[in-house]
TrEMBL record:
Keywords noted in UniProt: Signal
Protein name as annotated: Uncharacterized protein
Organism: Rhodanobacter terrae
Signal peptide: 1-25
Keyword Signal attributed: yes
Length: 108
């Protein structure tokens, strides 16, 4: 082998070693960067899911409280209606009893 071939081989090995070192440095430096990006994306997804969960809970609580208030209102309305029907029935009975006594002259 002559000096030109040996010099060319040494330069090629040096270039290959330099490229391999640079590629390794880029891989090792990009590895933590990619890992950090993936971690940040995971945290973002987790935070978004938590926010959706909190919003869903808030809506469910609001709907539940609204249903409770509606049920209580309906219950109170039904109670008032029942009392009114009862009073109306009692007044109707009293009126009927008075009319029957009046017709058969039992008032005297």
């Amino acid at each position: 082998m002559n000096g030109n071939k040996i010099c060319g081989i040494v330069i090629a090995f040096a270039a290959l070693a330099a490229f391999n070192g640079a590629a390794g440095a880029q891989q090792s430096s990009s590895g933590p960067g990619i890992k950090q990006d993936v971690k940040a994306v995971g945290h973002g997804i987790g935070n978004g899911a938590r926010d959706v969960g909190h919003a869903t809970k808030h809506v469910a609580v609001s709907v539940g409280h609204g249903a409770k208030e509606a049920g209580v209102g309906i219950g109170h309305g039904a109670k008032k209606a029942g009392i009114a029907v009862g009073h109306g029935a009692r007044e109707g009975w009293d009126a009927t009893k008075h009319a029957v006594k009046h017709v058969f002259h039992k008032d005297d």
